[in-house]
Design a protein that fits this description.
This protein has about 300 residues and is an alpha/beta fold. It contains 9 helices and 6 strands. The radius of gyration is 27 Å and the shape is flat.
Length: about 300
């Protein structure tokens, strides 16, 4: 029986956060925490979610953050390599610390030292570009080379490759993470096959087609997902939300505008580069003509020149 999906286009979450950032799934969050840190905690009630979106007075959001055994854990999902994550994480930590200080009524201007949880910053990468299993991103990589060693501040972010088939030790250590990677990989492969057959070139129609491809890919992946997968029942129960989450990047006008502007910018850069190449060729041609004219004159051959040039 075919399932018709009513896509929730208002959903701005991400699938990674939807799976690992929910109270009902805190056992999976604990499993992920243990896999990332090589620990063996068993009491999921120790996890206290404090994702920025939960605080109404903060006008920014991160993916998933939680307090656990004296640590402040910020988990971000990225589908493309972003070397600027240390800057973003620094902003997130600053806002989370502000919320933590207010919640605990600490005096930021007092003489007593405020006890703060230790930040642990992790990016889970599942883009299509090949990357190593783990990369350490540093804030200081953005600083001027001649002064970076003198910095008084540093932020380090662990970027972990969670593509299916990569980073096997990490994925095997967290079954829900491995299943998530399998799900994303299968949706991606099915979508690519459907897009290869799609000859539509109009942007708006192509975007609508992509949504249809995504719907078919999600439904097919859920149908072939092994029944012993821990996340299977959750995804089936939340299928419309999953579609809304995964389709947000396709249908969200603000996201599309970013890509359109990026395309326009790259087009302008290419046009500028072509103009510069043409000007260089023209200069080289003028120089060749001048050298040839000098040679002819030196050999007593009269040469007519255009005085206007």
């Amino acid at each position: 029986m075919t399932r018709e999906l009513q896509v929730n286009r208002e959903h701005k979450d991400r699938l990674f956060n939807f799976i690992f950032g929910q109270d009902e799934n805190r056992e999976w969050t604990l499993s992920l925490y243990n896999a990332v840190n090589g620990s063996h905690y068993t009491d999921a009630s120790q996890i206290k979610f404090n994702t920025l979106d939960n605080f109404l007075y903060i006008s920014m959001r991160n993916d998933t953050s939680f307090l656990m055994t004296g640590t402040l854990n910020l988990y971000e999902h990225q589908a493309s390599y972003n070397p600027n994550m240390p800057v973003r994480m620094m902003e997130y930590v600053s806002n989370l610390f502000s919320a933590y200080i207010k919640e605990n009524c600490f005096d930021l201007y007092g003489s007593a030292l405020i006890p703060l949880p230790t930040p642990k910053l992790v990016v889970f990468y599942n883009g299509t570009a090949k990357v190593e299993d783990e990369i350490i991103l540093k804030l200081s990589d953005s600083f001027e080379e001649q002064t970076k060693e003198e910095t008084d501040i540093e932020v380090k972010v662990r970027m972990l490759n969670v593509n299916y088939g990569e980073n096997e030790e990490l994925l095997h250590a967290c079954k829900p993470l491995e299943e998530y990677a399998w799900f994303v990989e299968n949706v991606r492969e099915i979508m690519e096959k459907l897009k290869e057959k799609d000859e539509e070139t109009d942007f708006e129609k192509k975007r609508e087609h992509e949504m249809k491809h995504l719907s078919e890919a999600v439904k097919t992946t859920l149908e072939i997902m092994p029944k012993d997968f821990l996340i299977r029942e959750f995804l089936l129960r939340q299928e419309a939300s999953v579609m809304g989450i995964m389709g947000a990047g396709i249908m969200d006008p603000s996201v599309q505008e970013i890509y359109l502007e990026r395309g326009r910018r790259e087009g302008r850069m290419e046009e500028r580069a072509n103009t510069e190449r043409e000007m260089k060729r023209a200069d080289q041609l003028d120089e060749k003509v001048k050298r040839l004219t000098d040679i002819l004159i030196q050999n007593g051959i009269e040469v007519e020149t255009d005085e206007n040039n």
